[in-house]
Structure formats: structure tokens, C-alpha cells
Design brief:
This protein folds into two domains: 190 residues, Rossmann fold (3-Layer(aba) Sandwich), CATH 3.40.50.450; 139 residues, 3-Layer(aba) Sandwich (Rossmann fold), CATH 3.40.50.460. It is 41% helix and 16% strand. The protein contains 13 helices and eleven strands. The strands form two sheets. A seven-stranded mixed β-sheet has the order 3-2-1-4-5-10-11, sandwiched between helices. Strands 7-8-6-9 form a four-stranded parallel β-sheet, sandwiched between helices. Strand 4, helix 4 and strand 5 form a beta-alpha-beta unit. It is elongated. It binds 6-O-phosphono-beta-D-fructofuranose. 6-O-phosphono-beta-D-fructofuranose binds next to loops.
Length: 361
């Protein structure tokens, strides 16, 4: 008999259910008897002992369903050693829940912060396996996270729709894409939808370069332009500030505008007065709905790999995709690192060759 705990932690994304289904299918095809305990709302369920005993049937028919049947919440890693409002020691409570249920392994579907916590629990002696979840595709050590391609699909569709109306009205449109720290979704959706300008956190922009790119379009006889802008896009001036001042400046902008796209729209208007400019923010639609086929495939394979690792008792691992192979790396190797877009990334270089401006030159 194997007793497996499972939870979904952090911001949700597509294919969480598909991954859990993959884990459970992998387990039931590996072991004669398996008991699954699903913790509700991420680590919170483990801390407070809120869980459901689930059967294989509960994971049937959920391959295509968005969201997570277990619910999710954020339990920030940096606050892990702070007690809960009720004074509970979070790590101690999670260890007690694990022991009380006599678990053989805990499977954590989560992004960067959640995998850091998974690594901490592994260091505390629990058997843990991580599966790389996030629309942002920023988990270090994996080429791909599940959720990313689905989010790119939605962001691309949003920009495609904007394209036709922008062309009809000869307008400049700024579409704000998710990604506070990294620009993978914006980079891919921007290229996929033929955006003219892509602004991402890793490549700070100079508004004068952005305007130069817009004027170039006008000279080419193009009546409209599309900017794909990440939530965390940052100007060169702000990026160059010392950390404390930079944070204060970012907070000042956040207090003044609903989000960065509106700030950028104002900056463009200041240099190009009279321009007809609009902002569109698809927001959390990018995390919703059914996973695209690619995500269904990789999440199913990730789930099967997790089951294989449990069979081999090869714990403390994060399931990853490397060079088109599903494999695993130590949780400790990935914990605490983000996978950023490098300005030297070949995708960025070729995008520039296509004439896309990143506002940096
Ligand atoms: O980490 C996933 C993500 O969707 C980011 O792209 C985005 O910046 C953030 O979560 C939004 O968080 P919340 O759901 O808390 O608004």
C-alpha cells in the first residue's frame, strides 16, 4: 500500500488537473494499492490538516478542465518561518500532517516559491516530488512548465483580436501580458501575433527608442502598431536606480496607474501628442480555461514521471523537461533560482532580425 499526498500551490494555471490525473494514473498502473490524500488550497491544507481522501475516480474526466480540483493559495516562502495568525508553526504542522497520514510521498504541483517550500520539506526529512507549474515558464532547470503554452495561446489570441481593430482604426494598442519578473509569455505571444514592439522586464526600454520604432512604422506607411508589454516591463532609467529607490519608483508608478501599460501609454502620448492610443489587459484570462494539447501532453508525462520516481523511491526531485526529454533534477538545484529571458537568447536575436523592437536600442 502506498499513501501519497498531493497539493497545488501558488497562482493556478491550466493543466493542474491534467498533471494530477497523470500522477494518479501513473500510480494506479504501478502499485496494486494506492491511497491519495489531496490537500485543499495548497500548503494551507497541509498546515491546517484540511484534506480529502480521493479515489482514482475523482481524477477521471479532468484532463481538459482548467483550475484545480484541490484549490490553490499562496504560502510565501519568505514567510514560512513566521507563525500563522493562530500562532501555528507552519513547517511543524506540515510535518505532523504528513506523519499523521503516514504518507510515503508528497507531490507538489507548484511554481518557484512552492518548489522552494517543497525543497525545505525535503530537507526536513519528508519524501517530496515536485512538478513544474506556472504560466510564466520561469522555473530554473526545466525548458518548459505546464501552463505556459496555454497562456501563450490566450495572450496570442488577445493580440490577434486587437490587431484587426487596431488596423481598422489606425490606432496604437498596448496589450499587457502576464509576467511581473520574466517576459517569456510576452516574448512568445508577441512573436506569435506579429507585435511590432515587445517590452519585457529583462530588457529595460528607453521610451525614445519605443517612439522611434513607432515613427518607423508610420514612415513605412503602417497606420497602426501593436506593443506587447509584460506586466513587469521597466524603463532603463528606473532599472538603473539602486534597489531601494527602484522599488520606491515602481511603487510610485503602481499607485499612479492601474498597471504599467497605462504608464507606457502616457509616456508615448507625451512624445507623440495627438496619437490615438489604447490599452488592453487580458489579465487572468491567461491562466484560465482548458489546457492546449501541448500542455495536456507534457503534464500527463510529468505525472507519469512523478509516479516512476515514487516507485524508485527517488525523492527530493523536481520533474523537468530537458531537450525534449522528461527527466528529474534535485529540488535543491532549482530552488531559489529564476529562469529569465536573456537579452542574448536566440529568440530575442531572431525577433530583432524580424524587425521587432525591444525598446533597448
Ligand atoms: O505567477 C503567475 C502569475 O499569473 C504571474 O504571471 C502574475 O504576475 C501573477 O501570477 C498574478 O498573481 P495574482 O493571481 O496573485 O494576481
Amino acid at each position: 500500500m502506498k499513501r501519497i499526498g498531493m497539493l497545488t500551490s501558488g497562482g493556478d494555471c491550466q493543466a493542474l488537473n491534467a498533471t494530477m490525473r497523470g500522477v494518479v494514473k501513473g500510480l494506479t498502473n504501478t502499485f496494486k494499492e494506492v491511497e491519495i490524500y489531496g490537500f485543499l488550497e495548497g500548503y494551507r491544507g497541509m498546515i491546517y490538516g484540511n484534506y480529502k481522501k480521493l479515489s482514482a475516480e475523482d481524477f477521471s474526466g479532468i484532463l481538459t478542465r482548467g483550475g484545480t480540483i484541490l484549490g490553490s493559495s499562496r504560502t510565501p516562502f519568505k514567510e514560512l518561518d513566521n507563525p500563522t495568525p493562530e500562532g501555528l508553526d507552519k513547517v511543524k504542522c506540515m510535518k505532523e500532517t504528513y506523519k499523521k497520514l503516514k504518507l510515503d510521498c508528497l507531490v507538489v504541483l507548484g511554481g518557484n516559491g512552492s518548489q522552494k517550500t517543497a525543497n525545505r520539506l525535503s530537507e526536513e526529512g519528508l519524501n517530496v516530488i515536485g512538478c513544474p507549474k506556472t504560466i510564466d515558464n520561469d522555473i530554473w532547470g526545466t525548458d518548459m512548465t505546464f501552463g505556459f503554452q496555454s497562456a501563450v495561446d490566450i495572450a496570442t489570441n488577445a493580440i490577434d483580436c486587437i490587431h484587426t481593430t487596431a488596423a481598422s482604426h489606425n490606432r496604437i494598442f498596448i496589450v499587457e501580458v502576464m509576467g511581473h519578473k520574466v517576459g517569456w509569455i510576452t516574448l512568445h505571444a508577441g512573436i506569435a501575433s506579429g507585435a511590432d514592439i515587445i517590452l519585457i522586464p529583462e530588457i529595460p526600454y528607453d521610451i525614445k527608442n519605443v517612439v522611434k520604432a513607432l515613427e518607423k512604422r508610420t514612415k513605412q506607411g503602417k497606420g497602426f502598431s501593436i506593443l506587447a508589454v509584460a506586466e513587469g516591463a521597466i524603463s532603463k532609467d528606473v532599472a538603473a536606480l539602486p534597489k531601494k529607490e527602484r522599488k520606491a519608483k515602481v511603487a510610485e508608478i503602481a499607485a499612479k496607474y492601474p498597471s504599467v501599460a497605462y504608464d507606457i501609454a502616457d509616456q508615448v502620448k507625451a512624445l507623440l501628442p495627438g496619437t490615438d492610443i489604447r490599452v488592453t489587459v487580458p489579465g487572468h484570462t491567461q491562466r484560465g480555461g482548458s489546457p492546449v494539447p501541448y500542455d495536456r501532453v507534457i503534464s500527463s508525462l510529468f505525472g507519469a514521471k512523478a509516479a516512476q520516481l515514487i516507485k524508485k523511491e527517488d525523492f527530493g526531485k523536481l520533474v523537468v523537461m530537458k531537450n525534449n526529454e522528461v527527466t528529474a533534477i534535485p529540488l535543491a538545484e532549482s530552488a531559489g533560482k529564476l529562469k529569465y529571458v536573456s537579452p542574448d537568447d536566440s529568440t530575442v536575436k531572431y525577433a530583432k532580425q524580424l524587425g521587432i523592437s525591444f525598446g533597448d536600442e
